[in-house]
Amino acid sequence: MTLPEGPLGIIAGGGGLPVRVAEAVAAAGRPVVVAVLDGHGDAAAFAAHASRSFRWGMAATMLEWLKGHGVRQVVLAGTVARPSLLSLRPDAAGMKLLARIGKAAFSGDDSILRAAMKVLAEDGFEVVGAHQVLAGLLPPAALLAGPAPDDLARADIARGLAVCRALGAVDVGQGCVVQQGLVLAVEAIEGTDAMLARAGTLGREGPGGVLVKALKPGQSKLADLPTVGPRTVENAAAAGLRGLAFEAGATILLEREATIARAEAAGIFLLAFDPGQFTEGTPQ
């Protein structure tokens, strides 16, 4: 993708992805302007760029600040825990913005993101995905590490994909853990790491379970894609799982080399899968 002239704005949550985006864009010679979500992103990580922290309730002020720096194109990157309504403490401009988002503020994460992107577009911003800035973030279908999944593991992946699709249809989560056909845990607001910790206490005897991650039905690829990285692998291994399977072309793979190396060291598989090959109840 050829990005236009002018600064790229980053609305940064937690984790390493926003930092990687900022570094890559700056290295290409394009200015970067970073609005850090207070309590989520690390403002110190963006000291080399024009940056400022904003709490949720100042979202409208944040957009005006980005505009004041000449930003017309933005990337939404990083992990974010949705705040409670009481903690928002919106300023006057934030109240108007919240009214524009409307009832989506009380819905699931994807509903909120769609509403937020609509507001951004109405305000003259173009939202681009992190994968459009950083090449190789969304791996194609391939076995990236570990032994090939056997028939039982493939059945667990198919079961997990069906569960993820059902969860996603009601805008709940993007992941689950399945062992021998049993759904040990599903992802909701607690996130993948907490789900894996819970699944580790629920495992059965015999072959370990599989973490499955997939895009929600109809979800945009511009924000909040399923994500796996080195910590995901570590937590999956600690939970006694034997593999991670994620939707190819729709899941961000952070720190690719480190993630693959840790999966190989743990002896678990890392599979980017084509959903068409894992439909529950059909032979593979």
From TrEMBL:
Residues 142-270 form the LpxI C-terminal domain. Residues 8-136 form the LpxI N-terminal domain. Its EC number is 3.6.1.54. The keyword Kinase does not apply. GO terms for molecular function: hydrolase activity. The keyword Aminoacyl-tRNA synthetase does not apply. Keywords: Hydrolase. It holds the Pfam family LpxI_C. It is an enzyme of class 3 (hydrolase). This is UDP-2,3-diacylglucosamine diphosphatase LpxI. It comes from Roseomonas nitratireducens. The lineage of its organism: Bacteria, Pseudomonadati, Pseudomonadota, Alphaproteobacteria, Acetobacterales. The gene is lpxI.
